[in-house]
Design goal:
It is built from 6 helices and 8 strands; from the N terminus they run H-E-H-E-H-E-E-E-E-H-H-H-E-E. By secondary structure, it is an alpha/beta fold. The strands form 2 sheets. A 6-stranded mixed beta sheet has the order 2-5-1-6-7-8. A two-stranded antiparallel sheet has the order 3-4. The longest helix is centred in the C-terminal third of the chain and has 18 residues, at 173-190.
Length: 213
């Protein structure tokens, strides 16, 4: 179980495919940007759970691979220590994935098994042309110097909660509601919405940058 669709083994929230026009824009933005993580372009797909980040990350990777670009996709939820382990996941991302890649070496992380509620195997992250990291807090300010593009994906809270419960079940409502409070604090602290280069709605469409508050 988990905040990104762990209601069934290996399950994730999956919505409709990302519009081709969005993928074309993101492709241009990614490939025109500098390689800041060693030779790798780091793309962070951030935003609250249930907004469509997983779908976008997979579609973008497929889109880039079709054009001969090597891409790896990481799901930050695989690095979290359960429902309350967001900070642990971000620490793993920074120290064992991004630091080695910035030095031209493969990274790695310890995968969390949401069903066993325990850490599982180590996973190697190879050096590629593009690394797409998706998940809430996947664009921490501590990684800014390595990041080529930040994509913020969001939709309204009711839709996000409904998507989560449809996947994970009503019995996890309390966990989902607690997670949504936690992620709101982290996203505000990291100023993800303000720092993002591109903003998408829950259907994967590019929307204007939100007004600053």
């Amino acid at each position: 179980m988990g905040p990104v669709g762990r209601g069934v083994p290996g399950g994730r929230l999956v919505s409709a495919r990302t519009p081709r026009a969005t993928l074309d824009v993101l492709e241009r933005r990614v490939l025109a940007g500098p390689s800041r993580l060693g030779r790798t372009r780091l793309v962070s797909v951030d935003g609250p759970a249930g907004s469509g980040k997983t779908t976008l990350a997979g579609d973008l990777a497929e889109h880039l691979r079709a054009r001969g670009t090597s891409v790896e996709v990481l799901h930050l939820d695989d690095m979290l220590e359960g429902w309350t382990g967001l900070e642990v996941g971000v620490a793993q991302l920074l120290t064992t994935v991004l630091v080695p890649l910035s030095q031209g070496r493969p990274g790695s992380y310890r995968r969390y098994d949401w069903h066993a509620k325990a850490w599982a195997e180590d996973v190697v992250v190879p050096v590629t042309d593009v690394l797409v990291v998706e998940g809430c807090a996947s664009a921490p300010r501590a990684a800014a110097a390595w990041t080529t593009l930040i994509v913020h994906v969001s939709t309204d809270a009711r839709t996000r909660l409904a998507r989560g419960l449809a996947r994970d079940g009503e019995d996890l409502r309390t966990e989902w509601e607690r997670w949504m409070r936690l992620e709101a604090v982290v996203l505000e602290r990291e100023r993800v919405r303000e720092r993002a280069d591109v903003h998408l709605d829950g259907a994967g469409r590019i929307v204007p940058r939100p007004a600053q508050t």
